[in-house]
Amino acid sequence: MDKPSKKQIMFERMSEKKKETKVVRRIVAIIALVLLLIVGVAGFLAYNFVTSALEPVNPDSEKVIEVEVPIGSNLDSIAELLEEKGLIKNARIYKYYVKFNNHSDFQAGTYGLLPSMTLDEITESLKTGKVYREPLFSITVPEGLTLEEIATRVIEEKTDYTAEEFMARVTDEAYIDQLMNEYPTLLTDEIKGENVKFALEGYLFPATYPFYEEDPSLDLIIKQMLDATNSVVSQYQAVLEEMEKTPHWLLTFASLLEEEATAQADRETIASVFYNRLNDGMPLQTDPTVIYAMGEHKERLFNKDYEFEDPYSTYQNKGLPPGPIAGAGASSIQAVLDPATTEYYYFLADSEGVNHFAKTYDEHLKNQAEYIGN
Prior knowledge:
With 374 residues, the protein is mainly α. The protein is 52% helix and 7% strand. It folds into three domains: 1-53; 65-128, Endolytic murein transglycosylase (Dna Ligase, domain 1, 2-Layer Sandwich), CATH 3.30.1490; 135-342, no CATH class. Functions as a peptidoglycan terminase that cleaves nascent peptidoglycan strands endolytically to terminate their elongation.
């Protein structure tokens, strides 16, 4: 066989190099394409991540979250605090946002911020020292209202819902069960006790509630009030456990003080009267429980009214009623857990609403003759 000529060898080598070059080019092209895809996907994911981080945490939330910004806080600590409180999605992105927009001079203080606020609204609030977002309207629930009074005097007057719609919602068994799952520490089985009139009676905290949408749902309104009650009662959870008492007991006791007291000092003293009577096995004999039991407002009770038989009447039954008879404010709740120390067992209110206390029944009768008469 003839040996290949130098020309043939050179030609074959060139052909092989061309093939190798093509393969290399294909590999390079594939690698470049893969890298482009990786960069493109990474860029897309990064864009989505940043875009998402710049949006409100929950655009539909109406829950006000308290944030305490200490004096001397820097941007890093403020951003981490906001992320920890669930008001921003990412502290690092927020810092870039603040620096990019040349924001500075945040004010120390206590803020009520919402997860539905934009980064700009949160930032403006921290710069001006006040909440930048103004509510569209507010609902005020005064202390001492029953569930039915909240329905007629608050819900019906301040929203587009009727009292009947509100009462239907707060007495719906399935809804009550749902709320018990959401608030397991606050709403225990006690609220569904055999003689409890309304499960949520006394559990909608008296306060002013801001709303940032025109037509908030009934569920949102109700949960705002439950959130407030849960926030207040949870502060005393350790105390209640030490006393071996429950939130239901606390709110029931506090509701009696709310209906009887006209001043803070009265709450603490009336609490001492109730404790003294309970400890000695005496009925509490407080008129508001009779009025609640009868289901009608009365300026004055007569002897026959005290004979009205109902589980809520503390004239006919010893101990606390089955549940709260109204919404108690923070001062009444505090008075239950920090009562005055007295030897009083009786009290009555005169025509001016001033309470007069007595240690014995004879002293009580004298007060009755002096301040009330026949």
